[in-house]
TrEMBL record:
Gene: serB_1
Family affiliation: Belongs to the HAD-like hydrolase superfamily. SerB family.
Substrates-to-products reaction catalysed: L-histidinol phosphate + H2O = L-histidinol + phosphate
Gene source species: Bordetella ansorpii
Protein name, per record: Histidinol-phosphatase
Enzyme class: hydrolase
Amino acid sequence: MTAPRRLALFDLDHTLLPLDSDYQWADFLARTGRAGDPDEARRRNDDLMERYNRGELTAEQAAEFMLGLLAAHAPYDLALWHEEFMAQVIRPAFTARAVNLVAEHLRAGDLCAVVTATNSFVTAPIARAFGVPHLVATDPEYVAGRYTGRILGTPSFREGKVVRVREWLAGLDLTLADFTETFFYSDSVNDVPLLEQVTRPIATNPSPALRDIAERQDWTVLDLFDHTLDAKS
């Protein structure tokens, strides 16, 4: 089989979506009474968001809360609730510009993947809804029919995204060097390690910090949204 000539990687939160799916999932569980103490869940969710924005959050710290929400419930219930979440929160946030951006790469025959720090339980249905066939996400550990609340393997966060993308490509007998062009679309300064690895880094709806870097590095800046639906940058 002939390898695709181009690779297109997409961050998800605040890049293809004008919101943070991890934050919104926790908020959805809290306001529907499925996250224990709703007020405490919202407080912790907001705290994680603020620490992320300051660049002070580790993948392990985020997992303690976010993956703990998965560990607290049966997979059957989680799947049912995620269907509600998709209908009420995610699908209404899709924009034509983001959908068309992905579709252009797919029509061109590019190898496409969503590469996100958010866990694969939350993001796999979202990637499918965009039509993206591959997902590189933080994987929650799953043992004996339950989520454990722990991360499985390397989290897809900061330098970990580079590691995970290389591992995914290796599984396809490919490397970044096998492509004539490699694109990565992202909004976050946390993704600079992967943006520096591709030939076409595209700062998409960038945070102020990433916009400054993009301007200094002469990277393309793409604004898909007029505004975002939560506070994460």
